[in-house]
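Handout for the seminar on molecular recognition.
Each group receives one record of this type.
Step one: identify the two inputs.
Step two: read the structure output and locate the region that could contact 3,4-dihydroxybenzoic acid.
Step three: write two sentences on what you found, then compare them with the reference statements printed after the record.
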Amino acid sequence: MRTQVAIIGAGPAGLLLSHLLHLQGIESVVVESRSRADIEATIRAGVLEQGTMDILTQSGVGERMRKEGALHHGIELAFGGRRHRIDLTELTGSAITVYAQHEVIKDLVAARLAAQGQLLFEVSDVVLKDVQSETPSVSFMHGGQPQQLQADFVIGCDGFHGVSRPQIPEGVRQDYQRIYPFGWFGILVESAPSSDELIYAQHERGFALVSTRSPTVQRLYFQCDPKDDVNNWSDDRIWSELHTRLESSDGWRLKEGKIFQKGIIGMRSFVSTPMQYGRLFLAGDAAHIVPPTGAKGMNLAVGDVKVLSRALDDFYKKGNSDQLNVYTETALKRIWRAEYFSWWMTSMLHTFDDASPFQQQIQRAELENVVNSRALSTALAENYVGAF
Ligand code: FAD
Ligand code: DHB
């Protein structure tokens, strides 16, 4: 088999790249280890920045997002028994859309298949070869048969645990990492929304987040021990924890409902550089991870792919490799700012077991500053909507 661009992984990064390349007349093949049903059902992100909404719309896959997603013009920060609104649109002119990542995946898979795009699901034993040469290839098993895919480029969109990043030798690569001492317990609930906007709550018992998926399904998270087991959490215990962390004397109450999905995720900040090695390029979680507090992960994957699709277009249309040569540098500027924002939101909103009483007071003062200063609220809003 031969193609122009071999893409490993059918997450948001791999699928969107394949779609954008197709619109530019560049051929690609996507190889994915999981089944279509599995990738279309995995519950992950929910917040799309303005730039992500724009690229989905401009590339013709935004119709369902606009119809079924919820456009939000603000978020709330809750602490000290009060809620404070950050008016994203007034402060930045932009907004966000709450639309589940797996719905974006469904829309992209449908678009690729409608265009006769090659998506190979349930592949195994993926091995990258000769990525430093001009004739790289990918070998893998598909449908019980060994396959060899020759390409001009191999793009690693295979997430944090994929096989692409380790192709860059350790002596060449520099990894930056911070692992947080807490995780998020996430649930999906059958109920009407409790709030028109997302609520990010800081509480002495730990962070909590109220998000949504649709008029009948809600998404809630709370800070937990990353090594905890979901089986330790009965529905009653979950509701009691969420009520305590989110409610105050202002009368607002969290709506309960049937919990139909529970999961725990660990939290880390991670950047691996360079994001390219010969004809191998990394995009999305394969190269970087953020803790979810800033809602940046999927948006960063989309940002990388935007840069990469333009650089590949320049290569194929004009024979110009300049943009490809500076891919890492171009992508990292945006990535480090998002790393900073995600770290900052995480630090400001979570409870650290080892925080001294002094650090606790400083954390509270920082939140007071953010909600009382238009300059700081604007900085938060600009970062949150991805206004640059
Ligand atoms: P992935 O989505 O991880 O896709 C990689 C794909 O590669 C997978 O389908 C995998 O099966 C496949 N793969 C792996 N190894 C191989 C292999 N060897 N061969 C073939 N295929 C392979 N981000 C936001 O922007 N906003 C949010 O609100 C947000 N909330 C989140 C909430 C949670 C609970 C979690 C877990 C994450 C959240 N994120 C959020 C992060 C976001 O989900 C990720 O950043 C995003 O999925 C990255 O996309 P990706 O395409 O780079 O990688
Ligand atoms: C969601 C996830 C996030 O990480 C976040 O910051 C906000 C919302 C969500 O899944 O809805």
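Reference statements: The chain has a mean pLDDT of 97. The chain is about 35% helix and 30% strand.
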